[in-house]
Amino acid sequence: MSISVTNSLTLRLYYGRYSSLVKGSTRNNVPSGTLSMADASALRNAIRKLQDYDFAEASEAQVQEKLTAFADSINNTLTSAAKYSGNDTSVKNAVSKIKNLNSSYSSQLKQMGITVNKDGTMSVYESAAKNYSRSRFTDFFTSDNKYLNDLYDAAKRITRKVDVRI
Question: What are residue 116's phi and psi, to 5 degrees?
């Protein structure tokens, strides 16, 4: 599976103190535990920030960047945690849960311009923000959305189980 990491401001904000790990070249030289921690933390940040985001007031470019950064944080989490999961069954189960959640909610995600691939990763249509109603994004990214809450819990499990000293 090949993941292309964008270097967007949104993605760097999601990564917070791990923002240097947004770039692909930097990611290659980082221990798997640290990378898994950074990616799962970024996914948790993405979920919480999107639940508070005002899609109605944002430009198309801003919405597109948010969607792409969300998908990138999921894809990065799946990739790094899968590499790390040989060290921890709980992390392996969290990876499976994320993939299953993505598959279960693929039709809802597709209605917003996000495609779930066979391997559980996501792709965002280049014109998702232009072609889909902002109300769809607002209605989906709520604090009571079961998909997002379960996704957050899986990412939380990864951050709790990953040993960053590895």
Answer: -95, 120
Whether residue 2 lies inside any domain: the answer is no
Task: Report if residue 24 sits inside a domain.
Answer: yes
Q: What is the DSSP string of 14-62?
A: HHGGGGGGGSHHHHTTS-HHHHHHHHHHHHHHHHHHHHT--GGGS-HHH
Higher pLDDT, 158 or 6: 158
Distance in angstroms (rounded) separating the CA atoms of residues 18 and 63: 23
Q: Is residue 3 part of a domain?
A: no
Reduced to 3 states (helix: H, G, I; strand: E, B; else coil), residue 122 is strand
User: Rounded to whole angstroms, what are the CA distances from 134 to 46, 60, 124, 145?
Assistant: 18, 9, 15, 17
- Report yes or no on 4 lying in a domain: no
Q: What pTM did the predictor assign?
A: 0.90
Q: How many domains does the chain have?
A: 1
Tens of pLDDT, residue by residue over 66-97, are 999 999 999 999 999 988 877 678 999 999 99
Tell me how far apart the alpha carbons of residues 155 and 24 are, in angstroms, rounded to a whole number.
21
